Amino acid sequence: MRWAWPAVFPYYEKSPMIKLSPLLLLLACAPALADEARVAMLPDGSTDMYVGMAVGARLGSADLNGHGRGSVMPLLQVEWANGIFIANLTTLGLHLSTTPGLEYGPFLETRDSRHPNDRRGLAGTETIEGNPNLGAFVNYYLGAEARLTSSLYYDSNAHGIGLHVGLQKSLRNILPHHTLTFSLGLSAANGRVMRQRYGVTADAERYPGLRGYRATAGLSSVDGGVNWNWKLSPSWMINTAVNASRFGASVADSPTVSRSSVVSVSTGLAYRF
């Protein structure tokens, strides 16, 4: 079995301190889309490609202003016969396994930058240059409709390590041409990553009254989601998703975070070549 993408990493969208790209809102659609893209093996020289448009919004945002955000962005997923894939314009990876029920390989993921003067509430935080992250994924199938997902990455900005593990379960044929995919996951990172994303340096001379905060290693979020895939024809499909995240204590206690949870809603129309 093959999926068009590995476990993608929800902590980037949840971080209130990173200058967020609207593309990351579209990740909520990816599990259902990837479920449709699964193939036994692509013939030599062939390509499995999805393109489309999606609209997404974050509700109960963790941003300091507490407002949700919306965006409309292109959606792209491609996998080639040699195992190379692109997921949502942000992740480039390679499937290495030829064993049924097992997927693994490396990936390279783009990152957004962040500068303390980008917007209100970033005073005392670290600059993030936006260098890409390098990592590896391993997915293991528990039968035809469920899989365990995991990914380990090196944060080239913080020079630290992060991890995401999850479980996905698909329910097919509830109605003709409709599939539901449920997901549950955990994201964690070491101290270097957490301090860069959520830490605050209290500098009384530059930032009077600013509360310093040193984030610690550990759980960054618990994530759950539901994806609804409606196959309109052999080529056209609609993907709708709702994802919810609850921040870990080290994240929720940061003075840069105004809420302890966030909900993302997205829907998109895709065409499969």
Automatic annotation (TrEMBL):
What GO terms fall under cellular component here? cell outer membrane
Q: Which InterPro entries match?
A: MipA
Entry-linked Pfam families: MipA
Q: Does the keyword Membrane apply?
A: yes
Cellular compartment(s):
Cell outer membrane
Keywords attached to this Swiss-Prot or TrEMBL record, sorted alphabetically, are: Cell outer membrane, Membrane, Signal
* Signal peptide (from-to): 1-34
Q: Tell me which family the UniProt entry assigns to this protein.
A: Belongs to the MipA/OmpV family.
The protein's name in its UniProt record: Outer membrane scaffolding protein for murein synthesis, MipA/OmpV family
